[in-house]
Description:
It is built from 9 helices and 6 strands, in the order αααααααββββββαα. The protein has 225 residues and is mostly helical. The protein has 2 domains: 1-137, no CATH class; 140-225, Beta Complex (Beta-clip-like). The protein has a two-stranded antiparallel ribbon. Helix 2 packs across helix 7. The chain is globular and about 55 Å long. The termini are far apart.
Amino acid sequence: xxxxxxxxxxxxxxxxxxxxxxxxxxxxxxxxxxxxxxxxxxxxxxxxxxxxxxxxxxxxxxxxxxxxxxxxxxxxxxxxxxxxxxxxxxxxxxxxxxxxxxxxxxxxxxxxxxxxxxxxxxxxxxxxxxxxxxxxxxxxxxxxxxxxxxxxxxxxxxxxxxxxxxxxxxxxxxxxxxxxxxxxxxxxxxxxxxxxxxxxxxxxxxxxxxxxxxxxxxxxxxxxx
Length: 225
Ligand SMILES: [Zn+2]
């Protein structure tokens, strides 16, 4: 049974073009909560023939998602206001019976968890096709020089693959956003701070943080010579 009105969601896409993928993700999370409860599976529908195999796999449930970090209190006031607006938009399209036990703030907090822990599925042209959330993959920290990557092609599981040799005891990092060689420290930190609310201190950022002083000194030396 659908717990949303698809026509209303299409209207939301016009009102919130930049947020519609996130709105769809939160609607999907709430719909699954309504269908399966807090601890039931929220994986995609499984063909019966695959039932035996699938039953052995732990699919993330609502509580797995709800345990992730993220609340409106850690966002600046203007962004908190926008997140509450998005929550209101979700409330406007859900069947009342599916949201009668939750508040606007609860849904706004889901948006925060989604923002801080989700991954995008991107087209070759760079368009975001969908948002996916793999709660266990959210525990990997970011590095601008990662040694592993997340594949989002499998809708049921995020797959982490090492991209270089990793020594015993070395942290496995993924990139929350991929940066080019030309993306400087300021750009990367600004982007990560806005998107994920942290100041990146990965090995690449720490190294580049030390470099400007050296580079300035080099330029002075070049001018003098
Ligand atoms: Zn970094």
